[in-house]
Amino acid sequence: MLRGAALRVTRPRVAVLNAVHAHPHADTDSIIGAVRRELPKVSHQAVYNSLHALTAAGLVRRIQPAGSVARYESRAGDNHHHVVCRSCGLVADVDCAVGEAPCLTASDDNGFSIDEAEVVYWGQCPACSTADNS
Ligand SMILES: [Zn+2]
Ligand SMILES: [Zn+2]
Questions:
Q1: Per-residue pLDDT reduced to its tens digit, 61-77
Q2: Which of 6-10, 22-26, 64-68 has the highest mean pLDDT?
Q3: How far apart are CA 100 and CA 113, in angstroms?
């Protein structure tokens, strides 16, 4: 994947990519934890730099729901959306309803050429809604 994106293959990049694949929507701290299980001596900065390079190359997608820290996932480029739990912050994927961006037609585009609608669904995850009702 790295070579396909014309990125130099380094051990931190490979480890970060593996961690993002294994833990969709993980935040930076969890990714550092996962990478250190593979490369115990990797620095925070190396992980940040790798995340930045992978995101810029389009191999990793960075999302940041309101009130949340940045999270990363390997499912990039398919315009899927997210549903976020208001109670515990759990994030799950929701396939794009239309299949391509922008999946939501603006009622007035103000003359812009619109290429994306950022859709975030908010609610309660099954575990939190069950806990509230008991
Ligand atoms: Zn929840
Ligand atoms: Zn996702």
A1: 999 999 999 999 999 98
A2: 22-26
A3: 15
Whole-prediction pTM: 0.87
Q: How far is the CA of 77 from the centre of ligand 2 (A)?
A: 10
Which ligand is located closest to the Cα atom of residue 125? 1
Q: Which protein residues have a CB closer than 5 Å to ligand 2 (ion)?
A: 73, 93
Average pLDDT, the chain: 93
- Under a CB-based contact definition with an 8 Å cutoff, are residues 77 and 61 in contact? yes
* Proximal ligand: closest to the CA of 92: 2
Ligand nearest to the CA of 20: 2
Residues 23, 100, 16: CA angle, nearest 5 degrees? 20
